[in-house]
């Protein structure tokens, strides 16, 4: 009976050993799973700690960058003010621009300076004589336009040298000399005894008149044409002697579109007042001239 018991115990031991091995394997798997879960928990905790540690650094970086932004804003503001300073300077310069005088609306010529009359070099004898008080007239500044006001009776005045000086004044380019010279010339030729006073000095008047016709300025040239027509109407055929000197200068701007009508009118007046003799002189200088007759 004893051997049978021993065999049973041996088999039981073998079974027990197998069960022990199974339990050991189960325990090892459980321990490995526990260790894996612990390691995963440790990793998760480490990642949380890293994220927590990273957020303060980012906040600190933001805090560090904020002062830099604050420091840059004043420089940008300075740059804006510096950039805006030229504009403000331009505005200040614009405000200091002098506006034209009210009298500039009445005439188109430059105003002569009244503060340098003693030191100024006059352009012609007319401005010099006017500043010296030798021209017996002044400007009457009306509400609409300027007019001439005589300081003496013009009928008692001698045309020598007053009319010659006024003709020289055609070359003036500043106000009031331009207006005074031209207005005085026109009114002197309208007086009753203008023909008798003009004929003795006609040759002396032609010299500055020719200078006005030779001027490059169109305004001066137009005044020369007007003066030529006025003289021709006054002395008529007596102008024929001086036509060779005048016709060539008159024809000089015949091809200018803006002046063509004025030139043709002047030549027609010279022909009308001078007759056939004037026509022959004009055609000798201007072969293409067409007679008004």
TrEMBL record:
Residues 1-118 are annotated as: Disordered. Residues 26-45 have a biased composition (Low complexity). It comes from the Eukaryota. Residues 8-17, 53-62, 70-79 have a biased composition (Polar residues). InterPro entries: Parkin_co-regulated_protein (IPR019399). PANTHER family: PACRG-LIKE PROTEIN (PTHR21207:SF1), PARKIN COREGULATED GENE PROTEIN PARK2 COREGULATED (PTHR21207). This is PACRG-like protein. It comes from Phytophthora nicotianae CJ01A1.
